[in-house]
Automatic annotation (TrEMBL), chain A:
One cellular-component annotation, GO: cell outer membrane
Family (UniProt): Belongs to the TonB-dependent receptor family.
Residues making up the signal peptide according to the UniProt record: 1-29
Keywords attached to this entry: Cell outer membrane, Membrane, Receptor, Signal, TonB box, Transmembrane, Transmembrane beta strand, Transport
Organism per entry: Flavobacterium cupreum
Residue intervals of the TonB-dependent receptor-like beta-barrel domain: 388-975
PROSITE patterns membership: TONB_DEPENDENT_REC_3 (PS52016)
Compartments, as annotated in UniProt: Cell outer membrane
Name of the featured protein: TonB-dependent receptor
Topology in membrane: Multi-pass membrane protein
Residues annotated as domain TonB-dependent receptor plug: 134-258
TrEMBL record, chain B:
Predominant place of localization: membrane
Family: Belongs to the SusD family.
Cell compartment(s), UniProt: Cell outer membrane
Gene3D superfamilies: 1.25.40.390
Top-level lineage group: Bacteria
Domain (RagB/SusD): residue spans on this chain: 319-459
Signal peptide: 1-23
Protein name per Swiss-Prot or TrEMBL: RagB/SusD family nutrient uptake outer membrane protein
Key words of the record: Cell outer membrane, Membrane, Signal
Residue stretches making up the SusD-like N-terminal domain: 94-226
Organism: Flavobacterium cupreum
Amino acid sequence: MKNLSFNKGRPSCLCIFIFAMLLSNQIYSSELTFGSYVKQSQQQITGTVTDVAGPLPSVTVIVKGTTTSAVTDEKGNFSITASSTDILVFTFIGYTTQEIIVGRQTSIKVILSEDSTQLQEVTINAGYYSVKEKERTGSISRITSKDIETQPVTNMLATMQGRMAGVSITQNSGVPGGGFDIQIRGQNSLRSDANRPLFIIDGVPYASETTGFYLTAGAQPTTTSPLNSINPSDIESIEVLKDADATAIYGSRGANGVVLITTKKGKAGKTTFNVTTMNGTGRVTRFMDLMNTEQYLAMRNEAFVNDGIQPGPSDYDVNGTWDSNKYTDWQKELTGGTVQINDVKYSISGGSAKTQFLISGDFHKETSVFPGEFRYKKGGVHVNLNHTSDDEKFRAQFSGGYTVQDNLQPGTDLSAVSKRLAPNAPSLYTPDGNLNWENSTWENPLSLLESKTKGRTGDLLANVLFSYQILPELTVKSSFGFTDLRHEESRTMPSSMYDPAYEAGSEYSILYLNTTSRRSWIVEPQVEWSKSWNKSRTSVLAGVTFQQLNGRQLVQEGDGFASNALIYNLASAYVVDIRNDSEQDYRYQAFFGRANYNYDDRYIVNLTGRRDGSSRFGPGKQFAYFGAVGAAWLFTNEKLFKEHSTFLSFGKLRASYGTSGSDQIGDYQFMDTYTSSGNNYNGISGLQPTRLFNPDFGWESNTKVEVALETGFLKDRIFLTTGWYSNRSSNQLVGIPLPGTTGFSSIQANLDATVENQGIELTLRTVNFHTEEFDWTTSFNISASRNKLLSFPDLEGSTYQNQYVIGRALNIRKVYHYTGLDPASGLYTFQDVNGDGSLSAPEDKQTVLDLNPKYFGGLQNQISYKGVQLNFLFQFVKQDNYNATYLGGMPGIMSNQPITVLNHWQHPGDTSGYQLYSSGVNGAAVEAFSKYYDSDATITDASYIRLKNVSLSYTIPEKWLSGLKCRVFVEGQNLLTITHYNGADPEFRSPGFLPPLKIFTAGLQFTL
Amino acid sequence: MKNIIFKFSISLMLLCFFCNCDSFVEIDLPPGQLNTPSVFEDRTTANAAMADLYAKLRDSGLITGNGTGLSNLMGNYTDELIYYGSATTGIPPFYNNTLTANNGTVASFWNDSYNQIYSANAIIQGVAASVSLRQPDKDQLTGEALFVRALIHFYLVNLYGAVPYITTTDYEINRHAGRLATELVYQSIITDLVQAQNLIEEDYVVAERIRPNKGAAIALLARVYLYHGDWAEASNTASVVLNDSQYGLESNANMVFLKGSTSTIWQFKPMAEGVNTAEGGNFVFTSGPPPFVALREDLVNAFEAGDHRRISWIGTVSDGSTTWYFANKYKEQTNTGSSVEYSIVLRLSEQFLIRAEARARQGELSGAKDDLNVVRHAAGLGDTPAVSQQEIIDAILRERRVELFTEYGHRFFDLKRSNALDTTLSTVKTGWNTTDALLPVPETELLLNPNLAPQNTGY
């Protein structure tokens, strides 16, 4: 009842709040002219602002020392009232600010030069507030639309790869609609699924939990990620908040970092129309080198000789059933197709100095590398409106977007089967064009494509921000956000997948249907106060958050259909079974604040804090406090430096310390309940125990420390940021693994273990050339981090004892140590650690391997000469990973193998290569192989350097096209990979699935 | 100025109002969930908890008719089935007898079983704590849960040897549970079943024999006594079932596996009307070569001439040159208008063979022969020619082979308890080792709970 009455009350008090703000605006707009007094010798000044390439719109022109300002229009023209003694200041982000004394001029021509060294003036979005780059006390990485737009990718996480220090991103699948893993400064939580950062789009938290379900996952290694909905072309900038100073204001959700996405905004000036079209192709980056028929059959025959048996009745590859002269490169046949990419984007923007708008839309389509008519389509619209009242006290901002995705992919990724299939397996088709089943001796891989996954997602995201300046120092504002995601996903398994000889009709067909919806709202009223006096500047912010998210997932299974043509119609199924029906209610409430003090642009202190409450915890455990302090010293603003240093142009030392938390544990976990299982028995729908019950778990906490030095040399043409951080997560909130005898695999609880992530991040930016016509900028970032389990009381007595080692990383594997081939038996041997004469786990699995990247980073170059622009990015990672032998199964069974397996034991005395071939009946060989699989021999170096992105564009001079701006471009992704790795793709961590594709596109952009 | 202060304070007041709504983060139960205690305060929901357990037994774990259950896997493991399916499924290690401790199927046998045992224990505890459930309902539910708990432990002990016997839902106890000696596991099984037969109703609580009645508990107890070597108890207990007029052997072998068979003691209701058994879907095939598994020819040849079961229960497919055989006990591969076959877990003929063997082992040879002959007559065969005690025992085991093939691993367990695994299997299975008599304890379990050490030898 308490909830109910509050729910009733909330909307009404919000209305009052908004009304109060609107009311005050009206009163004040009538007192408008009060502030500006008229000078005697005022005159109208007009002019044009240009850069090397042409007119510059949206340049701010201010009369120095006043609030009088103007903005240049599309042709770079402006008009402003000033007196002859005034100084006009021309500012535009990315360009050197110019000051011009009006004097007797009435028409002024200004040429601004691009200033790649001036990034210190850029305003950075820090979430609830924004801060100038040079004044920030926290650690924030940023990329902007300039970097994003040159990449032909559809997932926004892909655009960040290699470009941000401390941010590690891996692609899970090359099939469109697949997910990415992102980790900011390492793994904090023992829970492998609780290391996601918080995603915020224009102030609205975006739930990144999966919307998929395992039954409908299809060709993807992971279930569907909603992050695909975010459209890279709508993004103006992505800021990643990393340290305590930046993340503590996000409290409980900041432990794993925060990704802030700011969408594009309208710009004042002439209405601009912009169209970009792009077409391209994609292919698999690398195939594995596999055996050909001759090599494969030799292996198989040798295996049977070794086993002392004849090939069995179902060994069709070697028992004479299949043609032993046939060879098919199955990787090429099944995953060697070319993806066609088509992409169109448009935008219209414009407006006055007080009101601006932007409308943009896009459509993207790509086909698949698999044979068949598979495709991924994505389209969306984005709208932004900004309004400022005449007295500039009231501001309103609206951003909204709707994205639709429509994905049709095979139900199974053929990558795994393409690597395993015998090279002499039969043809895919019979001469008359039907699927060939070769007298029921094989499962035709194309039959797997009869199974399809369809995904349709509609995602709406809208937010409004109202702000009103009550006093010059005091602003009240509130944001209102709303998200609505609807996702429908299906996977079919029609009877046409099966060999017709088995006469399986459509009564065997199956449909899995997943409908997920998620809706959330957020309201965040805030008060902001700022004041400057003498050399001091202060700003204080306080606000509250209310957020609610409701979700529902319904997964249904339909078995048996009257016809396969009716397979998408659940009503046509003989039997319909509910596989999952779950609802989600997540509520979140917080009070947050920030206080910032800046003395003389030399000393800056920043305090942030938050009190958080989350419905994911039981009564009495819901609330917790988080906070941080950050400080910066701009030592180059000290007199000593100002007077003496010409070499060092900028120097800042900053440090921060604070806490944040995590509530990524799912909803309702503290409740002791039975759940409807969907299992039907005699007409009764079953009830099952939901989980092992523990009501007493609480917040996980994360303490972060960072010290960084930012230095600019030679007018910031060389800019180096070096940071050191150390994050400690304690009171770990985990599903503690339990043995099967408890009936479940884990229990939710806090664990008194501490995990430390320590690392160094280095970012270097150099302006190599900077002339009017030729510009060359290089950016380099590298991050080295160390993940370490610091303490774990009673690790030896816990269920984690064989998973973790104190002092080592979380992402380790404890494996057997491979000690080479036994020259006599030809079998793999391993170190018998405890010397008991037999190999067993855990005693002999004592070799620890760390799968975390040792270091990673990127090297980017941006070169422009007149209208030509060339950007390219090399991404690199130093890491170990499972190698090619991981996937193939034991050499000798009916499964193809990497060509390296040819080097193997053949005669007593052989000591190198792989063990003796066996068809699978040699128990000792199977045993040895299974240990090999679990040993340090299968984890090898998988480091790589990859030419991640190249983009080359040429802007055709405007005079050639009578005012029409045209840019021609070619772009490429994953073009070149340098590695020793013997598997398919070293970047990739999901063996058996399609790795990231090599993409090449070309396009045109028109601006009118 | 007054105006400004007024507005400022209103805004602040509003902010403060928001800050005082802590109850905002209290949420209600989700619609699909019930508080655990309330489940057992109501007969309908308590029955739904029990129904869920039967559905799980039917669809997962050891005694499911799916390809991941004992009927298929232990048929491959022994000399009943030949595997024709893909080399990369979980079945070849069973078929080749090359199981390793990290085998996924072995782990799901273990984990599914203990999850089902947890559900049984949760029912026993929930019912005991219930205040409003009627006593007859309490007895019936407790009895059924005890029966299921004993049944699963019985299979576990025969597959893995010494295993933990879990009787509580307390994870603090269960996470450290050690392996109980085989003998003690048997004692616990017997205790549970004796208690179950006292609690469960004589009549089936629902039609179609799809929930165990007292007879089912007794039938299982008879089997447990036999496996344990308690011959007299085995014989006496089987007699209770055999004297029960509810049951009778079907004289037509085609009727035995229909849902209305009078020889059925306990069977699983399929998940929906029209659905038949998973066994039918797995074993039956209509063209060669077989897609999945086929019967070994020596099993087919083990039938005596004139055995009706050879005709009714074994299907034949030929492509002109090669002939393949399949288990055709359950004949329906797919859905029918209304279901005609249910998966039968306990059948009367096994009880005859239990008593026959128990009698023979005690030297009651004529009684033993009588029971054996009842089964043979039902199959259209004449009296057994066996005379000596050993001949009779051998004849009973032979009879069990042809009567109970591809049912819940009977062949494996019979070979094992008669110490015939090595002699029988080493000739037909290249990969067979003496240590294959026990499955490996899943490696993940050994890593999580050191009290389960040592691993079974050979792994």
